[in-house]
Automatic annotation (TrEMBL):
Location in or out of the cell: Endoplasmic reticulum membrane; Microsome membrane
Keywords: Endoplasmic reticulum, Heme, Iron, Membrane, Metal-binding, Microsome, Transmembrane
Family, as annotated: Belongs to the cytochrome b5 family.
Ranges of residues in domain Cytochrome b5 heme-binding: 36-112
Record Gene3D superfamilies: Cytochrome b5-like heme/steroid binding domain
Keyword Membrane: yes
A Pfam family of this chain: Cyt-b5
Principal subcellular localization: endoplasmic reticulum
Protein name: Cytochrome b5 heme-binding domain-containing protein
GO molecular function: heme binding; metal ion binding
Membrane topology: Single-pass membrane protein
Taxonomic placement: Eukaryota, Viridiplantae, Streptophyta, Embryophyta, Tracheophyta
GO cellular component term, pick one: endoplasmic reticulum membrane
């Protein structure tokens, strides 16, 4: 009988602690939500460069600049999602739970949904244009062409100077 009364009081205290913890969690969530900054779409759309990249996903704004080099799909994927609501792009890929958890550290605020346009006007990402003449493959192709010509010219020069003497 003594144990039953202690067990009941332990259950009562445990239930009260659980309710208190739940209330604290809800209050903490409300505090965090009220402290978050609300960004205008125009402001977020300006951050569309490799060195300064913000995304809108599910009504939240993320500064993913530090993640650009680490993103498995490359920085082009992130840049193509700037200047619009990237929720569909994000969800279509099927990101893992760990990717969703990782997003929390890049969270910088909420988007003012009234400023998000219904139709998106395309704003190309600001990055250096691709120049195929500066790729290593191009240099190799040029060398594959020039080296045989140089050898042929050297052979003719040697033959010409050795023939006269």
């Amino acid at each position: 009988m003594l144990f039953d009364s202690h067990r009941d009081s332990i259950y009562t205290v445990s239930a009260q602690l659980s309710r208190d913890l739940l209330v604290l969690c809800v209050q903490l969530q409300q505090i965090m939500a009220s402290d978050s900054k609300v960004h205008l779409f125009e402001e977020v759309a300006k951050h569309n460069k490799t060195q300064d990249c913000w995304l809108i996903i599910s009504g939240k704004v993320y500064d993913v600049t530090p993640f650009m080099d680490d993103h498995p799909g490359g920085d082009e994927v992130l840049l193509s999602a700037t200047g619009k609501d990237a929720t569909n792009d994000f969800e279509d890929v099927g990101h893992s739970d760990s990717a969703r958890e990782m997003m929390e550290k890049y969270y910088i605020g909420e988007i003012d949904s009234s400023t998000v346009p219904l139709k998106r006007t395309y704003i190309p990402p600001q990055q250096a244009p691709y120049n195929p003449d500066k790729t290593p493959e191009f240099v190799i192709k040029v060398l594959q062409f020039l080296v045989p010509l140089l050898i042929l010219g050297l052979a003719f020069a040697v033959r010409h100077y050795t023939k006269e003497k």
